[in-house]
Amino acid sequence: MNILILGIGNILFQDEGIGAHFVHYLDEKYEFISEESTVSIVDGGTLAQRLIPEIVKYDEVIVVDCVDALDSKAGDVYFFDYKKTPSHINWQGSAHEIEMLQTLNMIDMNHDLPTTNVLGVIPKRVADDTTFDLSAEIISAVNLMEKVTVNYLEKIGVKSNIINAETNIELISEVSFKREIQNGPRV
Asked: Is-contact 177 50, C-beta < 8 A?
């Protein structure tokens, strides 16, 4: 099985960049091992529809992005099947998210959508200022996001080995714009 972990977000707008930063964090911290599967990590940024040729190559996709939800607070983490998005989740909070939602809908309409799960987090600050800094709530959420990702990959037969335990999201957010991801293709 070919698995894609796809980070979405605009890294220039604080918490909105968490999807992109998080995949760089995973790439820096882990190596993913499986006899039956491959794992690719892609920073999709704000490419949305230009990601279609990449997404359709995979059997399983995990999209990491900001979401909104009723009765939620900044830093809350959600993991759900894209086709069964809970009614209390709103994935239309900013321009890039609308484009990503539309992108998945278009792929689905053509019956090419792989099994797709969304790892979403509620942002605190979006587009208040142009900076790579993340809010304390998002920084705290990364531990749960990481745990959810590692547990899900284990469930589908992928082992996650820590190769750099010193990695932290704050440092990654300062350099992810210039990092090359080692575990997968660049788009």
From this structure: no
User: Are 13 and 127 contacting, i.e. CB atoms less than 8 angstroms apart?
Assistant: yes
The residue type found at 20 is A
How far the first Cα of the chain sits from its last, in Å, is: 20
User: In terms of DSSP H, where are the helices of 71-168?
Assistant: 95-109, 136-155
**CA–CA separation, 142 and 149 (whole Å):** 10
Amino acid identity, position 19: G
Cβ atoms of 14 and 150 closer than 8 Å: no
8-52 pLDDT tens trace: 988 877 888 999 999 999 999 999 999 999 999 999 987 878 899
Distance of CA 13 to the CA centre of its chain: 16
Q: In this structure, are strands 30-33 and 159-162 parallel, antiparallel, or unpaired?
A: antiparallel
DSSP for residue 77: E
Task: For residue 94, give the 3-state DSSP assignment.
Answer: coil
